[in-house]
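Proteins fold. Shown next:

***
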Amino acid sequence: MSGRRSLSPITREHLDRLAAIAREDLEARFARRPQWARYRDRILCSALMQGAALHYLDGKNGVKDLDVYTFFAEPPAGLAQFPQRWRTCADFGSSSLGRDPTLLEYRGRRVDLFGRSLPVAGDSDPVEALRAYLAGRRTPTSRALAEKAAVLLWPEPLRGLVPWPVEG
C-alpha cells in the first residue's frame, strides 16, 4: 500500500462485489424514490470508472476509492427527467484493497456511486453508448471520465470488459 492508495490488483471478485453494491444501491434508491423506479428498465450498464479502473488496467495507478457509475438511457417523453445529483457512498468492506486511513467511518475502500443518463434509446448497445458518451466529451463529467478508464460491472456477461480507452 502506498499512502492512501492500495497497489493490490483489482480482481474478478472485486468486480463481482462492486456489481452487487451497485445493484443494492439502485434497488434502495428505487424503493426510496418510487418515481425513479421507472428507470429500472432503462439501465444500460454499470462500470468502474476513474483511477480504480485505470489501476485495473495498469496495476500502477493505485486505488484510493472506487467510483461506480450506472448509465441509463435517456427517458422518453413524459417520463420525469433523470435526477441531476445522483450520488451516494457505500463501504466496500474488508478486502485486499485495504482502506483509506483518513476515512475512519469505512472498514474498506469508499465506493462512490453515481448515475447518469445518456442520450440513447433503451435498447442501445451499452458498450457503444458508453464509448460514444466518453468520446464525445460534451460535459464536464464525460471529459473527466474519459481521461482515465472504464471497466464494465453489469450486465454480468460483460463484466471485466474494458470499453474505454478504446484500443487501436
About this structure: The beta strands are 43-49, 66-73, 87-91, 110-118, 150-154. The first helix runs from residue 12 to 32. Helices lie at 12-32, 50-58, 126-136, 140-146. The chain has a mean pLDDT of 92.
